[in-house]
Write a structure and sequence with these properties.
Number of helices: 17
Strand content: 15-25%
Largest sheet: 9 strands, mixed
Strand order of the largest sheet: 1-2-3-5-4-6-7-10-11
Radius of gyration: 23 Å
CATH class of one domain: Alpha Beta
Helix content: 25-40%
Shape: globular
CATH architecture of one domain: 3-Layer(aba) Sandwich
CATH topology of one domain: Rossmann fold
Structural class: alpha/beta
Number of strands: 13
CATH superfamily of one domain: Alpha/Beta hydrolase fold, catalytic domain
């Protein structure tokens, strides 16, 4: 991402003098290959580091080397405003996440550089990770005393002050990187938590933003975690409804809700499962808890390829075969451990969301769900022990701007439902919200949406987009056996 294209105007005609077609960068970039844990794909880029103070206000003390990557535009004379990719989580790294979804940005990449910055605390930018608990398989199984011990151990091992890993501070880093790379304005793409980051950057630096794409929207006005079980239940209810309307699924699994009820009843304590570990291949005995089963179902609901398995997994478990569901839990939780810097996520949530938790509201909003409050209970134990950073006074306010914005939601998203998009849309003056039928979390790579996103970036406006194709997007057929969907 060495060059920035600019329109050449002739001084002879009394217009602006020609700009240098190559931007000036104060960051030394060298050829590199981007990769992601568990993926064989590689992306050719130019990489470097940009050093910032951990405490930006003091300007002294510990520093962080931010990993910066630029995927240069294919065109030899690219547009001057790149696309900045903001990863989710919180805790995922942009230089890793982009590798998995790069195909969705191919058309944008023809004319524009793609800028990737591992947010402080993620990827190769001083990643903040806690050790896995010794006496429990998952964080939400820790009792109060064990949680205190584990948090103290984690904080002692971190080479960081967790108070300085919040969103607004990270967006100050991003703007400094933008300036160092020589870009005047940027286009933003945020996925999940990255939408919160994009909103924060737009609020802090509106003159630097040309356009915004928000995919799977987590607005700062909403409190992360409070609706985790309610939103997951909504997605499962939609899946069950779709199964009932599908002849093959309805015949194979006439009562997914009943299967779930049987599963949760049988796992009221826990059960031992003999299985071959899906990642190592080793035979082992695994203790499956109810909370783990719920976690697996929620994570499987994120994408159409995995949500298509849910009725089959529930039915197998209800009939006493827990191995497929337990294997899915081990697979998904292992992937998260590799890609999420959990301690960075704690710094974000405990500073930006936990102070706004309302216990009575949490109980009321999550009542009657298959997850309940078990996952948010772990945050209610952890956050009082975690150093809390400050947030700007307007951080939780709705974003109000006339900057062109394209909002993307999946109809069956289990974590950032379309209602989040409608909430953000209500305060934007120049925005369009597209909802992909039957889809889960992150939809830019579904159907025609990548093309629409590219057209939006190219034009810098959403009016004129032909969005009729969105209605043609269809979810994947359900698996009626482990051999796959019916032909």
């Amino acid at each position: 991402m060495r060059k920035i294209g600019a329109f050449t105007f002739l001084l002879l005609w009394g217009c602006q003098a020609p700009e240098n077609a190559r931007r000036e960068s104060s960051i030394t970039l060298v050829p590199c290959q981007l990769s992601a844990p568990g993926r064989t794909a590689r992306v050719t880029a130019e990489c470097g580091t940009f050093t910032v103070y951990e405490n930006r206000d003091d300007g002294t003390g510990r520093t962080i080397d931010l990993r910066v990557a630029v995927v240069p535009a294919i065109d030899r004379d690219p547009k001057p405003d790149p696309l900045v990719f903001l990863a989710g989580g919180p805790g995922q790294a942009a230089t890793e996440s982009y590798v998995s979804v790069r195909s969705a940005f191919e058309r944008i990449h023809r004319e524009r550089d793609i800028v990737l910055v591992d947010q402080r605390g993620t990827g190769s930018s001083n990643p903040l990770r806690c050790p896995k608990p010794d006496d429990a398989s998952e964080l939400w199984l820790l009792e109060d005393e064990a949680m205190e011990t584990w948090v103290a151990q984690c904080l002692e091992e971190l080479d960081a002050d967790p108070r300085f890993y919040t969103t607004a501070i990270a967006m100050e880093d991003l703007d400094a990187v933008r300036e160092a790379l020589g870009y005047k304005r940027v286009n933003l793409y945020g996925i999940s938590y990255g939408t919160r980051a994009a909103i924060s950057y737009t609020r802090q630096f509106p003159d630097r933003v040309r356009s915004i794409i928000l995919d799977g929207i987590a607005p700062p006005t909403e409190v992360l975690g409070v609706d985790i079980a309610r939103d997951a239940q909504r997605a499962l209810d939609l899946l069950v409804k779709r199964c009932a309307e599908d002849d093959a699924c309805a015949k194979a699994f006439p009562n997914p809700e009943g299967d779930l009820e049987v599963l949760m009843s049988e796992l009221s304590t826990s059960t031992s499962v003999e299985l071959r570990h899906p990642r190592t291949g080793a035979e082992e005995t695994f203790t499956l808890y109810r909370s783990m089963a719920a976690f697996a179902i929620r994570l499987l609901s994120y994408g159409q390829e995995t949500s298509a398995l849910v009725p089959l997994l529930l039915h197998a478990a209800a009939e006493g075969d827990y191995r497929p569901l337990a294997s899915q839990f081990l697979m998904t939780s292992g992937q998260l451990e590799e890609t999420i810097a959990d301690a960075m996520g704690f710094s974000v949530i405990c500073s930006e969301d936990y102070p706004f938790f309302d216990d009575a509201e949490i109980e009321q909003r999550n009542e009657g769900t298959y997850i309940g409050t078990v996952q948010i209970d772990s945050l209610r134990k952890l956050c009082p022990l975690w150093p809390r950073g400050e947030i700007p006074a307007d951080f939780k306010d709705a974003l109000r701007t006339d900057i062109p914005a394209l909002l993307l939601s999946g109809e069956a998203d289990p974590v950032t439902p379309p209602s989040n998009g409608e909430l953000v849309l209500s305060t934007l003056e120049n925005a369009l919200h597209l909802i992909a039928p039957g889809q889960g979390h992150m939809v830019i790579h579904r159907g025609c949406i990548a093309i629409l996103a590219a057209e939006f970036i190219e034009a810098g406006r959403h009016d004129g987009l032909d969005t009729a194709c969105v209605e043609d997007i269809q979810p994947m057929s359900f698996f009626t056996s482990f051999a796959g969907p019916e032909p």
